[in-house]
Amino acid sequence: MSSRTLAGVIAIFALVFAIASPYVAAQTTAPAPAPTSDGTSIDQGIAYVLMFVALALTYLIHSFTFF
């Protein structure tokens, strides 16, 4: 390969690199989404479970006292 051909290849490579490099920029990560729950729904779920347990225990205790 002659030096003139090599210079042409390097020039074309540099031109392609100069045109394509802005499009290959690193992507920034998006910020994390805001939390969907502030804890009140978790507290409400725990309250429902505890009320169900209390209801079940009340039913069991009263059903054994009548026998």
3D structure, described in words:
- The protein is rod-shaped.
- The mean pLDDT is 82.
- Helix content is 66%, strand content 0%.
- It has 67 residues and is mainly alpha-helical.
- It has helices at residues 3-20, 40-65.
Question: Characteristics of this structure?
Answer:
67 residues; single chain; mainly alpha
What fraction, in percent, of the residue positions are helical? 55-70%
Shape descriptor: rod-shaped
Distance between the termini: 105 Å
Largest sheet: none
Share in β-strands: under 5%
Multimerization state: single chain
Unreliable stretches: none
Total helices: the number is 2
Rg calc: 36 Å
Indicate the structural class. Answer: mainly alpha
Instruction: Tell me how many strands there are.
Output: 0
Mean pLDDT: 82
Order of helices and strands: HH
What's the arrangement of secondary structure elements?
Blueprint: H1 3-20, H2 40-65
Short recap of the structure:
With 67 residues, the protein is an all-alpha fold.
